[in-house]
Amino acid sequence: MATSDVLGSLVQLTRLAPALVIAAVAMGACSQVSSADGARLMEWLRSSYEINMGALLVLALAAGLYILRTAVPRKPKVSVLDFAVHRPHESWRFPRSALRDLCERSGHFTEEDIQFQEKIAYRTGLGDETGVCPAIQAGMDEALGIEPARFEFSATCFPAIEDLFAKTGVSPQQVKFIVTNSSLFNPTPSLSAMIMNHFKMGSDTKNYSLGGMGCSAGVIALDLAKELLELHPESYALVVSHENITNNYYGGKDKSMLICNCLFRSNGAAILLSNKAADVKRAKYNIRNIVRTNMAADDVAYNCVVQTEDAERKVGVRLNKDLVKVGARALRQNMTALGPKVLPWSELAKFGANSALRSAAKLYKPLAGMLPAGWLDPYTPDFKTAFDFFCIHTGGRGIIDGLEKEMQLNRRQVEPSRASLYRFGNTSSTSVWYELAYVESTQEGVGKGQRVWQLAFGSGFKFNSSVLVANRPVREQHTAWEGFDATAMWADLDKLEAAAQAARAMKEKLSS
């Protein structure tokens, strides 16, 4: 029965109910009492009409709410059944020492340009196992183009998808939706169509390809797939995240556009979502929350990461000096929206009390002098009380440093992000999945009920959070993390940091 029919019936019931009750009571009473008593009873019923009417209306309302609750379908719960990330082939390995040779062979860069790129590569937390596709390593402009870019996508993403299907036992033909995201490479046919063609999916599969949405697009793709499944019960959705390096190699001399050459590396991640009843117990994670912050209406935020042309009309991505400040603002806005959904009452109470006290101090100036030092400082809620694991986008060492300090995280809590940046470089929208794979592979794994916070941010400017809750104990050795030595990584990073501090101290000494 339609909801409108149910409501119509309830309205009719409320109109007829008083008469029906009066008639029923009167009929029952007539068999037991005299005519005089019956007259008194009828008089009492008439005088109590308003009371009866009110009670019946309350009863009808309660019944209506119950029927609405049971008649209106609930959104099905959407889960991450499993995911897979790609580890580049050994032949793609690009140690930091190879950067100079590549720059010299390309013929595009001066010695100053090369030194600048080497400095970035060594100081931003990359190691010697990152992957760069063969087209770029060839060092020749003619090796770049659409077909090499297509090859990079297929070489990184198809194996991840195959691994995912093998792990879950789901066939490509069972997938109802495909959502891909790639910010800088969006050919025709689309990337999602490439996947459909390669895996020979059914003609009823619906595909979507997101482009130009930056490093936070992985969470956006996850959100879109989740919303699709909430409207289509008993379905699978495949999310494939990727950023293409071949299609975005910059051969110019603008330092603000050279940074991307130093940071970004080949990548690919595939995630399978399900709302099927049969997958309730075996799914890895339930998607608890997705909170998206979009600052595109702000001109400064909009222009801090832009694909453009330099003075010589060479295309690249320019990183503006406002990027760090914009990112901090976006983080605060996102945390403000996310906090009430995930923080315990104790943290919300502290934040509310601090806000009230600061507002009172603004209205009554003498109050500030009466309070102990520090009481009027803005209170940052402790998100460690809400989450067990943090997957911070691998934008660079400085970004991870900033969030580590802002949220007062310890080394172990930022290790998934440090390790992902060190072994794979900046993997753009896929980084939060490389980090979750690290947690599952090399740390203690994820216990049932434990919460994971994926923090993704990028051009637009956008800051997006996804909150995953483990549906069962999760411990898996991902191929991408086989043989990784975290102790050796920390030793290397500490050595580089000591050298950087010594260089800064020397520079300050010479300038004084």
Automatic annotation (TrEMBL):
UniProt-recorded Gene Ontology molecular function terms: acyltransferase activity, transferring groups other than amino-acyl groups
Keyword presence, Coiled coil: no
Boundaries of every FAE domain copy: 74-353
Record domain Chalcone/stilbene synthase C-terminal: where: 389-468
Pathway: Lipid metabolism; fatty acid biosynthesis
Keyword vocabulary terms for this entry: Acyltransferase, Membrane, Transferase, Transmembrane, Transmembrane helix
Superkingdom classification of source: Eukaryota
PANTHER family, A to Z: 3-KETOACYL-COA SYNTHASE (PTHR31561)
UniProt name for this protein: 3-ketoacyl-CoA synthase
